[in-house]
Amino acid sequence: MNSRFTRRDFLKGASLLPIGALAGFGIKPQISFAEEAVRPQTTGQLKLALNAYSFSKLLNDSVKNRGPGVTLVELLDFCAKHEVEGFDPTGYFFPGYPKVPSDQYVKDLKRKAADLNIGITGTGVRNNFTTSDKEVRAAAVQHIKEWVEVAANLGAPVIRVFADTQIRNTSWEQAANGHSRDEVQAWIAADLNECANHGKKYGVKIGVQNHGDFLQTAEQHLALIKAVGSPWCGLIVDTGYYKSNDPYEDIAKVASHALNWQIKQSPYGQDSEVATDLVKLMQIVRKSGYSGYLPIETLSPRGKDYDPFTIVPAFLKDVREALKQTA
Fold first, then answer.
1. Of 80, 82, 156, 155, which is closest to residue 115 (Cα–Cα)?
2. How far is CA 114 from CA 38, 46, 57, 86, 215, in A?
3. The pTM is what?
4. Structural domains of the chain sorted by starting position, each given as residue range(s) with its CATH number in brackets
5. β partners of residue 260
6. Are the C-beta atoms of residues 160 and 196 closer than 8 Å to each other?
7. 89: which DSSP letter?
8. What tens digit of pLDDT does each residue of 229-258 get?
9. Helix axes of 181-202 and 218-228: crossing angle, nearest 10 degrees
10. What are phi and psi of 259, to 5 degrees?
11. Beta-carbon neighbour count of residue 157 at 10 Å?
12. How far apart are the C-alpha atoms of 169 and 95, rounded to whole Å?
C-alpha cells in the first residue's frame, strides 16, 4: 500500500474524528513479593492505548528527514480517529533523541493529547544494563533520569527501560564479558534502584520490559524486580517476548505485578505466524486485577509488507472484541 496516500488520507479527516474518553491511569500499588498475589476475577476498566513503535519506520522517516513519514502529534489524530484512549509516545521518536525534547515540544504534545481527550500512558528509552562497562551503564542511568523528568512533564506515569542487551547480535553473556548472571543482575538492580529513586521524586515509575535474552521467563523478570526492591520499579509485560514453551503461563505469573503492558500480535515474536489468543490473554489480564491502559504494539515482520494504517486498526478491532468477550 502507498503509505503516503494513506497518511494524507487520515490527516485530511483528522479534525472531524470522534474522540475517546479520558480516564485515570489505573496504576496500582506494587504488590509485596512476600505475599501470594492471588486476585479474584474482576471486571475492572481496561482501556486501549497505542504504542508509537507500531509506526516506527514512518516516525523515523520524519525525525530523520528521510521522507514525509508521520509525527507523534499526527499519531494523536490517528488515535482519535480510531477511538484509542491512550498513547505511548516512545522517546526514540521525539526530535533530537537521545537529547531531551524542548519544553515547548512537550507542552504542544501534551496539549494536543488533552484537546483530544487521550491519556499519555508512558514513554520509553533505550539503555544497555547488561554490559560490564560501568561508564556505559552510568550514562544509561543518567539518560533514564533525564527522561523521567520528560515523562513527568508529559504527565506519563511510567517510563519503559530495558534490562537486556540492546546491541544487535550480542547476547547478555557477551556484553557482560564473563560475569555471572548473579553478578549482572546485582548491578542491573543497583542501576534500576537509582533510577527508581529519581522516579519517586517526580512521580514516575520505572517499568522494566522483558525484551531480549536476559529476561526470558516470568521467574527471571520477577527475580530482578524483587532484587531492585523499590515500589517505584515494576514490570512492563511484553506479551511477545517470554521465551518459554508456554508464554501464557509466564504472562499469568507476572500479570498481577504489571505496571503496564505491550500487547503483541504473537506470543512468539514478530516473525511468528502464530497469533495471540487474545481471549485467553484478556482473561489473564482480568483475573490479575489489573485495570488501566493496555497499549498495543504491532511489529513489522522481516521480509513482509507492513502498513500500520491497515494493521493497527485491524489489531485494535481484534483486541476490542476479546475485551468484549471477557467483560
1. 80
2. 36, 19, 26, 11, 35
3. 0.86
4. 46-326 (3.20.20.150)
5. 236
6. no
7. -
8. 999 999 999 999 999 999 999 999 999 999
9. 60
10. -85, -35
11. 24
12. 27
